[in-house]
Amino acid sequence: MAASSVAPHAFAASSLWVQGHKTQARLVSGQTGAEQGATRFAFVEIELQPGWKTYWRTPGDAGGLPPSFDWSKSSNLASADVRYPAPQRFTDKSGNTIGYDGGLVLPVVLTPESAEKPISLVAELHYGICKDICIPVELELALDIPAKPAEAASQEALEALASVPRAQDQLKPGDPVLLRAQSELTGAVPKITVEARFPQGAEGADAFLEAPDGLFLPLPEKVGDPKGGQVTFEAALGPDVDLEALKGKPITVTLVGETGSSFATFPAQ
Question: With 90 as the cut, is the pLDDT of residue 32 above it?
Fold first, then answer.
């Protein structure tokens, strides 16, 4: 059995564990209190052996294999939207990566084609795990999701759902507040600057940048002296950034603090 930071629990419905190298995964379901209309939730639970980590949807400067999903074998499924809990930054001799260690629960918002029928959910899951070496993992998970789950989802699943970063107009107490986001794509020193207020101060505060179409953006770094929980981050846009392709594209910044996380999107100009 793989060790994990995710404690054992019983879900209303769960698939069998599927084993991979140094990891295992399963699908689980249950009521979250957030279902509305025809929307349902499933959760992809990934466990890792001690010392191993896996990646966020954007793996970071040092590269990595983020989770990807193929839902095409499912039935009565109109869409599956994977939500990512707030990640953390790892720094080692290979550089900076973004992800999770020990274990991970990914909430998935499911929309059925017919609200009155169960969803036969099949996920072909691909993800990378890394310790001293990085290894790709491919697993197939399957679970029938009832039209009306009878039992509540586990505490771990609910915590994962609650830790998904929120938009700036949906913040909860403790979430980081974006104060300014600005890109400078011309001049001698192209850069992206982000200013945010973190309720518990600068310790543990971090920011991650994403651009569409696979465009690379470096991880920002803290600059200056944080004051009153206000933190400034800068990302230097060096020769490995395609500035022309970046112009006009939406950039997403994810802010992660000690007591919450949030995100915002702004144009590259």
Answer: no
CA distance 134 to 115: 41
Q: Which domains does the chain have, with CATH numbers?
A: 13-164 (2.60.40), 167-267 (2.60.40.10)
CA distance 213 to 209: 13
* Cβ–Cβ < 8 Å for 64, 128: yes
pLDDT digits (tens, 9 = 90+) for 174-187: 999 999 999 999 98
Q: Are 250 and 213 in contact (CB under 8 A)?
A: no
Beta-strand ranges (E) seen in 93-239 are: 95-101, 103-111, 119-130, 134-145, 166-167, 177-184, 191-197, 206-210, 221-227, 230-236
What distance in Å separates the CA atoms of residue 36 and residue 213, rounded to the nearest whole number?
31
**What are the start-end ranges of the H helices in 163-267?**
243-246
Residue 75 token pair = 């039935």
d(CA 14, CA 102): 20
Q: What is the pLDDT of residue 93?
A: 81
Q: Closest Cα partner for 97 from 53, 134, 55, 60?
A: 60
DSSP 8-class letter at 75: B
**How many other CB atoms are there within 10 angstroms of residue 255's CB atom?**
27
